[in-house]
Amino acid sequence: MRLAAVDIGSNAIRLQITHITQYEGTTNFKKLEYLRFPLRLGMDVFHSQRISEKNRRKFIKLMKAFKLLIDLYEVDDYMVCATSAMRESINGKEIVEEVKEDIGLKINIIDGNHEAELINMALGAYIDQKSYLHIDVGGGSTELNIYRKKEKVASKSFKIGSVRALDDNIPLSVWKSMSRFISDHVSEKDKITCIGTGGNINKIFELTTPRKGKTSISIDKIKEIQDYLASFTYEERVNKINLNPDRADVIIPAAKIYLAAMTAASSKKMIIPDVGLKDGLMQVLYKKNKHKKNMA
């Protein structure tokens, strides 16, 4: 069985196609294709509340390309979800309808809570009986989820994101609201561990050390990497550190968001599982289709 997931974010758009098989009682997920295209819809929306004509045309072309790949791989089922940029855009629904009518690709615009639920579906292996704060930083929003003994006890989405923060125009009241949410649900006795998801925290972790089985990073190391990155200009981050152009500017504000949440929770460590919305979508698709016989 082949499944496809598309994550339409504020800073980039991702497609993953996965082949799922059953062998000797084990379910195997094999990634066949992964594409990340740096289309920054959030820059339009967070400034003018609409997707520009230039980016609309690019988006339509990209959806045509993704639909071709989905068809070429003979995918059995797919899900396409759009997050904060599309849901806050005045012309987002209009573009979604255009894609559906002209390309035959259905896009679901989801709210922050649904986005968090989907990401959480991919975190099962990382959550045990201890207390955790899951922090997912996207381009337009940050989703927070608090777990105790494997149960989610609180969840909230905030309009704080790496693209939105580029011009430092996030109101102080929103930052305070995020910190207050954490302090209202986390006490010192929790000794909470954070779980970080999102492309920027994965890149920060990658800059500290090769994974080699390691899955966590300290708050001090995140601060160290943030300071290291800030010591370079944008051009130097692209050319000396070899960051993608659409990563080189947002990674520092993203680090600020992760650090703010960790500090509010008095957490010293973050687990980096390298999963995201696309992985949650894949879990939903698998549960929906696993009863089918084409698992070869």
Provide an overview of this structure.
This protein has 296 residues and is an alpha/beta fold. The protein has two domains: 2-112 and 278-289, ATPase, nucleotide binding domain (Nucleotidyltransferase, domain 5); 125-275, 2-Layer Sandwich (Nucleotidyltransferase, domain 5), CATH 3.30.420.150. 43% of the residues lie in helices and 24% in strands. The strands form two sheets. The chain has a six-stranded mixed sheet with strand order 8-7-6-9-11-10, with helices on both faces. A five-stranded mixed sheet has the order 3-2-1-4-5, sandwiched between helices. α5 (112-120) crosses α12 and α7 packs across α8 (219-230). The protein starts with a strand and ends in a 7-residue tail after the last helix.
Question: Helical residue percent?
Answer: 40-55%
How many separate helices? Answer: 12
Question: Helices and strands: which structural class?
Answer: alpha/beta
**Average pLDDT, to the nearest integer?**
92
Share of residues in strands = 15-25%
Could you give the order of strands across the largest sheet? Answer: 8-7-6-9-11-10
CATH architectural category of the largest domain: 2-Layer Sandwich
Question: Regarding CATH, which class of the largest domain?
Answer: Alpha Beta
Order of helices and strands: EEEHHEHHEHEEEHEHEHHHHEH
Spans of at least 5 consecutive residues whose pLDDT stays below 50 are none
Total strands: 11
What number of structural domains do the residues give? 2
CATH superfamily of the largest domain, by name, is: Exopolyphosphatase. Domain 2
What distance separates the N and C termini? 6 Å
The main β sheet shows up as: 6 strands, mixed
